[in-house]
Known about the structure:
By secondary structure, this protein is an alpha+beta fold.
Amino acid sequence: MPSEKPRAEIVATDSPWKRAGRIVIDAPITVVFALIADPRQHAEFDGSGTVQRQLKGPERLFKGAKFGMAMRVKFPYTITNTVEEFDEPRVIAWRHLGRHRWRYELEDLGDAGTSVTETFDGSTALFPPALTIINAYDNNQTAILKSLVRLKLLAEGSSDTR
């Protein structure tokens, strides 16, 4: 019987300006955190299709680190992110000029692997309602679920991250 494609679940948030998802990854927390903390890997697990590659910054993130990414949404552009939270191996979060954030929370499940929750937080944006105009909340909810599946496949050693 063929195995089912992994799926992430939507996580309810306490704010209309936040979207989140969760998945369990059959890999140690240190392996999963290392992938997220390496900006060179972000294009590999990005489910939005917008992250192209790292342009500048460290190979491994840390609190206060700045890293530039090549992006594409209809046209190419670059963005610089700043790491605001870094509690290895449990939490990492970054933001860019618009001040909205992407946050990953990891929970060690022992032999059961690692639970990963990704949150897009528009509540920290300069003007959260403006993100509604560009459909950022719905688009990011979909992208989060895809990103988590891609992260799972990457962390578990699969080459099929499409």
